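Appendix B, Record 12. Input sequence as logged:
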Amino acid sequence: VAVYAICKNEAQFVERWMDSMSEADQVAVLDTGSADDTVRRLMDRGAEVVTEQIEPWRFDVARNRALELVSPQADICVCTDLDEVFHPGWREKLEAAWTARATQARYRYTWSFNPDGSEGVVFWAEKIHARYGYEWVHPVHEVLAYERPDYETVLAEGIQLDHHADDTKPRSQYLPLLEMSVAECPNDDRN
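Logged structural output:
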């Protein structure tokens, strides 16, 4: 089981994230140009880190590059962001749900929390997948695409990933990337 991620200037999340991902056999991170000590902190905690600029910037290109850092021997890949945290025991639940035919796992994801700490927006995410056959598509709000029609998604009951967003980070680059996504795939209902 390998975790992979992309990051930039997320030193504040490293300790919590690495604690959460410690159930994995490998943690691989593509840093896209941090000016803080994100890279050092990740490496100090045992993550394999590569720094690379992605120009022009696209989230799908960055995620695909991060996926390339995963060991060829990995069976299951888990894509998260550094501001996301699994509840403990996620790996055991993933292994219990995974089957010989599985290529992707669906799990519960809390995208936002209310001011009182209760869950806000919750949905099922599918960023856990087999090592081969998947690629990320779309410049922003990227999703996994499988190259063959014979994929099987399993429900990984009990896995919970919580998103604790950094609301101070700008999202101004999203609109041009969304426009690019629509231009590339005008008939895609997600766009």
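The mean pLDDT is 95.
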